Amino acid sequence: MTKMKLRKPSPKMDAAYFTAADKDNNGFDVKYINSDKGRGVFSCVHFDKGEFLLEYRGQLINNRECDQGQKLYHDSLKVFMFEFPFNGKLLWNKMVPLGDVNDGHITPNSKIKIISLEGKPHLCLFASRGIRPGEELTYNYGDSEFPWRSKLQVEQEEKEKVVYSKITKLKPEGTIKGKVWQACDPLPH
Ligand SMILES: C[S@@+](CC[C@H](N)C(=O)[O-])C[C@H]1O[C@@H](n2cnc3c(N)ncnc32)[C@H](O)[C@@H]1O
């Protein structure tokens, strides 16, 4: 008897299934990280590049409702409103579940795409590269100057300074394995 091979649904089909069913994909965990970052969403399984991860489900609101929300909500709730263009209009999604995905502007592992189903927009997150179990999901929030980004930049520059001073202290210019080594060369293994 010949065995029928079941084809894996495409990422778009997966997105359509979960959005229509109004439920979350399996394989995620929301965890507290630290007092700076708050919570984050972590993957418990492996995801391939391109796979559907989750939908930013929520309530679609217009500009006026968003303005009202900006006046009424506490700052900690405003960050859960996501602005996006759809059919020539600017809409906002007031996110409810899994709205905890943090910004990763340097090395994000996922990307938001707007999927239109029966004329309604759905904000869906897809893997932009392979994601390992235990990895935190991140996507690029956009070009704004978010306060945590400048802090991260300073930390990165500090780390680079330490590595450079370690290299220059460890190996002064000289000959290593017959090669004349300059302070700016990478260290031989
Ligand atoms: C939509 S919420 C994400 C979930 C949030 N971490 C929480 O615990 O509710 C966006 C907020 O998370 C924090 N955040 C997001 N990405 C961050 C990052 N890379 N570093 C530090 N804080 C971040 C900022 O406070 C931001 O306003």
UniProtKB/TrEMBL annotation:
SET domain sequence ranges: 26-142
One Gene Ontology cellular component: polytene chromosome
SMART domains, A to Z: SET
InterPro entries, per database record: KMT5A (IPR051760), SET_dom (IPR001214), SET_dom_sf (IPR046341)
One Gene Ontology biological process: regulation of transcription by RNA polymerase II
GO function terms (MF aspect): histone H4K20 methyltransferase activity
Highest taxon of source: Eukaryota
The protein, known as: SET domain-containing protein
